[in-house]
Amino acid sequence: MLFVEANGARIPAIGLGTWELRGRTCARLVEQAMRLGYRHIDTAQVYENEREVGEGLRASRIRRDDVFVTTKVWTNHFAPHDLERSTKESLTKLRLTEVDLLLLHWPNPQVPLEETLGALAHVKKLGMARHIGVSNFTVALIDEAVAACPEPLVCDQVEYHPYLDQTKVREACARHGMALVAYSPVARGRIKNDATLARIGRVHGKTTAQICLRWLVQQNVSAIPRTSRIERLSENIDIFDFALSEEEMAEIFRMGSAKARLTDFGFAPKWD
């Protein structure tokens, strides 16, 4: 497994996203992923599956120190005392004493960013999170967050796949020594019949999803594909035995535009 290093954190390059996974299915998939070699699991308070993620981790019998666990604080818990209390709740559900990475899930202009980041840094100092970061932050918000946060931020987790150009955010992260973690890295399956990715895949004997994930990893990006199918778990992690050429990388980059965003809510920031 490759790692993405950022401000003291070593984030496994491929992880399992758990958005929309629920109940027994979620616990079973997490357990299975761990047995297949995954060492990076991503969840969030708003996914309502932290308890099942914890069950899957325990069932796998993998040593806690060998797993990188991320969860995210929802926007209505950004007031300082509330952030600390809700983080404790997350840890109780996961049955962990700390998470490896705690993120602010979306920006919330209703609470001053400085206050929220102060609380996030405090939670880290209390030992509830080994590392802290943000999610769905724009370039301007990354710059503001880094300036305001008393502890280093290790990543911005954003939507990123070949159809969505995230050059600006990638460069902002690099400038601050932060990692970019990609959610929806296979564009929620839309890449399946992509002619360019399929052609590159035939050269390497790989699927379109594997080409997509390899393209991200070669940019030093950590990707967290979500799947509810066991066979996909094996496919998504089987990307470390080949490399894309510079020409192939460039060809995939050319597929991107700023308009191909799949996750956009009314409360989202003004995207770059």
Annotation keywords:
single chain, 272 residues, alpha/beta, TIM Barrel, 10 helices, 10 strands, 40% helix, globular
Fold and architecture overview:
This protein is an alpha/beta fold. The protein is built from ten helices and ten strands.
In short:
With 272 residues, the chain is of the alpha/beta class. The chain has helices spanning 23-36, 50-60, 80-94, 113-125, 139-148, 167-175, 195-204, 208-217, 230-237, 246-253, and strands at 3-6, 9-12, 16-17, 40-42, 68-73, 99-104, 129-135, 153-159, 179-183, 222-223. Helix 1 (23-36) packs parallel to helix 2 (50-60).
- Low-pLDDT parts are none
Order of helices and strands: EEEHEHEHEHEHEHEHHEHH
- The CATH topology is given as TIM Barrel
**Tertiary shape:** globular
CATH class: Alpha Beta
Structural class, judged by helices and strands? alpha/beta
Question: Number of helical runs?
Answer: 10
Instruction: State the total count of DSSP E strands.
Output: 10
Q: Based on the coordinates given, report the CATH architecture.
A: Alpha-Beta Barrel
What's the main sheet like?
Answer: 8 strands, parallel
**Beta-strand level of the residues, as a percent range?**
15-25%
Domains (count): 1
Helical residue percent band: 25-40%
The radius of gyration is 18 Å
Q: What assembly state would you assign to the polypeptide chains in this entry?
A: single chain
